[in-house]
Amino acid sequence: MSLFCIVIRELEEIESMASSKKVITREEWERKLNDVKIRKEDMNKLVMNFLVTEGYVDAAEKFRMESGTEPDIDLATITDRMAVKKAVQCGNVEDAIEKVNDLNPEILDTNPQLFFHLQQQRLIELIRNGKVDEALEFAQEELAPRGEENQSFLEELEKTVALLAFEDFSNCPVGELLDISQRLKTASEVNAAILTSQSHEKDPKLPSLLKMLIWAQNQLDDKAAYPRINDLSTARLEDPAV
Amino acid sequence: MPTSASTHRPEDLLTRLRSANADADAKLKALREVKNQIIGNRTKKLSYIKLGAVPAVVSVIAATADDCSSVLVQSAAAIGSFACGFEAGVQAVLRAGAFPHLLRLLSNSNGKVVDAGARSLRMIYQSKLAPKYDFLQEKNMEFLLSLLNSENENVTGLGASIITHSCETSAEQNALCDAGVLKKLIGLLQGSLSQRDASLESIATVIKSNPEVVSKFVGPENGRALSAVTELTKDRYPRTRLLACMCLIVVRNTSPGCLQDLAIRTKLILILLELLDDPGQVGDEASFALSSLIAEKEDLQKLAFEGNAIDKLCNHLQKGSLQAKRFQGILLALADLCSKLENCRSRFLALQVMNSVIDALTHDSGEVRAAACICLRSVSRSVKNLSAGNFMNETVVIPLVQLLSDTSTSVQVAALGAISNIVVDFTTRKSIFMQCGGVKQLVQLSKSMDPTIRLNSVWGLRNLMFLADNRCKEGIFLELTASLLASLICDPEPSVQVQALGLVCNLVDGCINSVEYVFVEDSIILQAVGKQLQSTLKAEVGIQGMYVLSNVATGNEFHKEAVMHQLFPQAGNSTQPIIIKFLQSNDSRLRTAAVWTVLNLTFPGSLGAYGRFVKLCSAGILSQIKNMANDPCLDVKLRVRTVLGQSLTFDIIHPFLRRPATTWYNPLISVFPFRAVVWLARQMGTDDQVQKSRTMMQPTFLFLVF
Predict the structure, then answer these.
(1) How confident is the model at residue B134 (pLDDT cuts 50, 70, 90)?
(2) The domain that contains B590 carries what CATH number?
(3) Where are its TM segments located (chain A) (predicted)?
(4) Closest-CA residue in chain A for B29?
(5) How far is B235 from chain A (nearest CA, A)?
(6) CA-based, 20 to 30 A from B636: which of A225, B186, B276, B665?
């Protein structure tokens, strides 16, 4: 975060100066870094936000005890949310739906798109397991009425049912519906909806901060040579290329 | 898998719920299953309601002790889901008497039970069917404040929903404000996402159309609340952005003095246009919010036009396969945009989206059909395109005429509005409208019991009659009949009378034979006009009636004398003639119409002109006109001078009056290009488009060249 502040400040400074590329030495850069004071609690909050949003409940619990940072959400709800997410990822969609409804019955009642996607995932799982009759019955009973309510649902439904026409899914043009990525997509949609219902942001703050850092560095690249961070996992400062 | 039909059969589930000797566990399981079946599934909700599931669930909740929290939670959740976004469900829930039981849950010691109860009550309060909450009772206000002060998010949300649902009158708004509710709601803007959204909606309800409360909202602490709401228009959640915009729109519409800043207004428009792209409910509602922002406000329409609103809305139309609500909203927003500004209409027509609008005329949803008509009405105010006959073609007219027999009154009225404009056609294509049975339909509707339908259908006929050729007129008149027209002139509604008189004005316009129409069946129409003029209290009726007489007075000697008879019905009676009252009116339009009549009656060149002149003099009308030589209204002044000029010819050239009429042909007056004047007036545009453009669609005065 401090780095980000510096990059921005440096950008502003250079903006007002001449057009020639400025060189900033490592010492200078580090001195500037040290000048920026960031409260430890804020950093901890950022970490906690990440752990909570991503659902690392044990880590969050430990971190809370060690750092004294209070999560902005009841940790028990994370366990519930992760259970839902996991159920979808394992293909137990019905189980996931019941869990969401126990958590907050409003989520699926007020979010037709999410509800449809979960039901669609249920259909996909039935097809995957070769339960053709059951799949057809389910599509007719549960999904067809949703298709009547919404044109785009109907299109998606048609695409999903098309899976039944193929013996070998690898030849099927809509075969990607059976990919694990489809489960992950549905799971993350549910995860986001639950977070929103808990008045929590659906994305952690840390990744967007890192994105901003990359953006700012790219901007600064045009104007100055400075110790850059290339590897985000180690955050090592590279020597400026002169 | 437990999806097999037998265990999930609704009938079996309900039997388990109802059976008295089932243990708590079995009931709990059945409740949970019902809940999971119906959530998100309208069809299932309906079939369960038909089977009587709601009373069954309510009787479980009624018989459950406060400490059986899981049964309470499950049954409250099921009831809430029945009521969620589904009017039939709300009705069933209310009828089953669920309300007091849910209220009871709010004081439960278990937070989850309180959550479930508050959620379900909130669902009910989101429906129009929910009982109205009486804020003016002190106990109720205390309870509401206790809800808003709760630590539980669902409970504060419930408090806000109650306000949004029930606060209607300004007395209630003031009471809420005085009790500190507004302040509390402003405080909740700093709360969680759901609290923010709920309080934005409630604030809009509490301040709507109440300048006093708006000032209490905007004023204190340097407008802290207002800037908090403004800040929320940039929130990351689309729903929050929309609600914040709607709140600001209410502020602006209630107290136009607030939000003077051009930047904020432009920003509001841009945010709403961006929100249109949201695929869900927010996108559906954004167009309605845009409408409420720009409706009737030309400055904002201009800003929206500059923000490319027409293109953006039309893009959505072109995408096709729109949900009914969204389709309706977009059409209505386009209607508002095109209601005043010609450049908006031109842009709309240039984008070639007429086909989508025409498709919408036959949409399944009545609301979409009505919206399409309203959109067409706005666009067809473009005189440029009207005069080019751009709307008078089968693809537009046939579906519109079909809508005249729509089952919904609002669709009929909207279709009449569009038709009224489209039939003002300057080319010779009115026959298209007549060939597809339009006249028959309009005449049929002019006999409707509904005054709005009657008004709009007569309006349509009046505009259809405008500049119609003789064959056209004859066709309309045959269908309409003299007796129906006479009864419309005497309609109980003054607004219908005005349109019927306007219709007659257009009927007698044109060639001299047209004047004969008012004399058929023992002059039944002219008699009706005279009768209305003698008795009316409305200026508008007087104006139209005088123009009828004025037009008839351009006819032959017999016609002119008939007009004299209407002006002085009781010969020798000492009461003041009605025309004097009109000449003295404060309404300059009425004075103009009255002077025109005198002008036509005394136009030198016809044999009886002098006789009529003398009669008008002795009735004191000429001396009244002399007093008006410096009338503040230029139009009146000009006509008065013409009359006085004419009277001068009587004084001077009296001996020569027997010379042939053509001698007195006055090119200045007789070729007076009245149509050009009407035309120009229309080109200049008006504030109140529907009203005025239509009023001007008829020739208000007429000279026959002879």
Answers:
(1) very high
(2) 1.25.10.10
(3) none
(4) A98
(5) 12
(6) B665
